[in-house]
Fold this protein.
Amino acid sequence: MRSRRRFGLALGRAYLLLVFAFIFMPVAMIVVFSFDADRFPAFPWGGFSLVWYQAILSEPLVRESFLNSLRVGLATAVLSTLIGFAAAYADYRFSFRGKIGFLVLIAVPPTIPTTILGIAMLAFLARLGLFGTLESVVACHVVIATAFAMAVIRLRLGQMDRDLEPAAWNLGASQWQTLCSVVFPFTRSAVVASLFLTMAVSFDEFMIAWFAAGINETLPVRLLNLLQGQVSPRINAIGTVVFGISIPLVALAQLSVGRRLKTRPGGND
């Protein structure tokens, strides 16, 4: 029986390795060929070179789109985390009429196809005269990222003892003091994870940014526009940069979540 279990476990691990290899192989190829001196990717290598990274660094549109992505990502992370924290706390602490509809409104946007959502946001922003600004891209990304922020923070709030806040109130703390001194320290790791995760969501998103940004391209939109033209090895370099930023953000979010799970349900971070 043990030998069968071990064989089944080994088989499951091998299957998972094959699945991950299948998923990440195209990404690995992009990274590998971004350092290839040849214009057209092929084996064997034409030699190690940073020429394509130098090319994208010397291109003003790429530099500007990268800065736009950073601006939008940072703004989206802060705003969506603040709104997500408020929504998660409202769900945790209060009962009110229309609560289910409130939660559905927050959770639905990520489930809508981005093409449909992008077209709808384009029509809405055009009516408001906000089309083509980075602020409009931030607003659109916040709509999507808030659901992720709320989910992460709400999971952490579910581990908090509901008697902690009443105990603080009985000791003379105001609701605001309790929120700052009890609730926020307890959810700090989840808030940090939310910041990293929502920034990664914003940095990777391109379809809605493509509809809403106009001439203010983000880095994924610049990559999409390059793909519509001639095939260029600069695409591999830009893709590697996007991948190299997104993966650490997700990893940092996961580390924060892992740290959160190691804490006791009734303790602070």
Observations:
- DSSP finds eleven helices and no strands in the chain.
- The CA atoms of residues 3 and 196 lie 42 Å apart.
- The radius of gyration is 23 Å.
- The chain has a mean pLDDT of 83.
